[in-house]
């Protein structure tokens, strides 16, 4: 049940696009199309932003998009806004447990 | 409106026990699998346990296996986590989350294990 690998931090200016990667193995990210992304503001509960690799729940801005190539999934945020500043976590179904999370990425909007 | 409300957290000594509850409303609770996820202070998310809609399938993270027990009461729209033999490293905010994709989360309840 090893955690997925995410960069500790990323940053971007308003209006720019950023991408956060999430690297696993063929037993999790690479083996299933069950990757999700969550946004968490300080002191708040996580919010689902992307599920099943690239699907957006109702109400989530289309500035958020997800993709996957091999064992690495990615979250892209376009048209960066100040309110996007938060921690982002990826997760995946795995062959040995229903859920494993990435270590989290702190997004700073400059 | 989907709502998940956790309760039961608090301060407990190492080796002690605690039972968390998660009250669900706004959806057909008996149709959804549920999870417990925790977050230690200043740390990332850690999946703790999963229970299927009918309680027929249950999983635990290695870190809590043999010490924690997940259960649910579909008649009461409630999810539970019985935590025994608590350790310092179990200190965290505990969230309940709906379904295998975590589409809804509660606000969390803080468990502090300290002497």
Overview of the structural elements:
The complex is a heterodimer of chains A (110) and B (115). Chain A is an all-beta fold and 110 residues long. Chain A contains no helices and nine strands. Chain A has strands at 9-12, 18-23, 35-40, 47-50, 64-69, 72-77, 86-92, 100-101, 105-109. In chain A, strands 1, 3, 4, 7, 8 and 9 form a six-stranded mixed beta sheet that branches. In chain A, 35% of the residues are buried. Chain B is mainly beta. Chain B is 0% helix and 50% strand. Chain B has no helices and eleven strands. Chain B has strands at residues 3-7, 10-12, 18-25, 34-39, 45-51, 58-60, 68-73, 78-83, 92-98, 104-105, 109-113. In chain B, a hairpin with a 4-residue loop joins strand 7 (68-73) and strand 8 (78-83). The A-B interface holds A 1, 3, 34, 36, 38, 40, 45-48, 51-52, 57, 89, 91, 93, 97-104 and B 35, 37, 44-47, 50, 59, 61-62, 95, 97, 100-108.
Short description:
Chain A contains no helices and nine strands.
Largest sheet entry of chain B: 7 strands, mixed
Tell me the Rg of chain A in angstroms. Answer: 13 Å
- Provide the low-confidence segments of chain A as ranges: none
Instruction: Count up the helices of chain A.
Output: 0
Low-pLDDT segments of chain B:
none
Treating each run of at least 4 consecutive H or I residues as one helix, how many helices of chain B? 0
Radius of gyration computed on alpha carbons of chain B: 13 Å
Strand content of chain B: over 45%
Biggest sheet record of chain A? 6 strands, mixed
Total strands of chain A: the figure is 9
SSE layout and pairings?
The complex is a heterodimer of chains A (110) and B (115).
Chain A: E1 9-12, E2 18-23, E3 35-40, E4 47-50, E5 64-69, E6 72-77, E7 86-92, E8 100-101, E9 105-109
Chain B: E1 3-7, E2 10-12, E3 18-25, E4 34-39, E5 45-51, E6 58-60, E7 68-73, E8 78-83, E9 92-98, E10 104-105, E11 109-113
Parallel strand pairs in B: 2-11
Antiparallel strand pairs in B: 1-3, 3-8, 4-5, 4-9, 5-6, 7-8, 9-10, 9-11
């Amino acid at each position: 049940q090893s955690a997925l690998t995410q960069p500790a931090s990323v940053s971007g200016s308003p209006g720019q696009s950023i991408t956060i990667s999430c690297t696993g193995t063929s037993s999790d990210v690479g083996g299933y199309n069950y990757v999700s992304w969550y946004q968490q503001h300080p002191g708040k509960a996580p919010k689902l932003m992307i599920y099943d690799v690239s699907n957006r729940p109702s109400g989530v801005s289309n500035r958020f998009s997800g993709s996957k190539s091999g064992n690495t999934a990615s979250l892209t945020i376009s048209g960066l806004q100040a309110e996007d500043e938060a921690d982002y976590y990826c997760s995946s179904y795995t062959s040995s447990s229903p859920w494993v999370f990435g270590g989290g990425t702190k997004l700073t909007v400059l | 409106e989907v709502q998940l409300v956790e309760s039961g957290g608090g301060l407990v000594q190492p080796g002690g026990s605690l039972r968390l509850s998660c009250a669900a409303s706004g959806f057909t609770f008996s149709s959804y699998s549920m999870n417990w996820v925790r977050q230690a202070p200043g740390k990332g998310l850690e999946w703790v346990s999963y229970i299927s809609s009918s309680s027929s399938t249950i999983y635990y993270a290695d870190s809590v296996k043999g010490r924690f027990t997940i259960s649910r009461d579909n008649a009461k729209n409630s999810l539970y986590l019985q935590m025994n033999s608590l350790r310092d490293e179990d200190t965290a905010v505990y969230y309940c989350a709906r379904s295998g994709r975590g589409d809804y989360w509660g606000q969390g309840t803080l468990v502090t294990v300290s002497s």
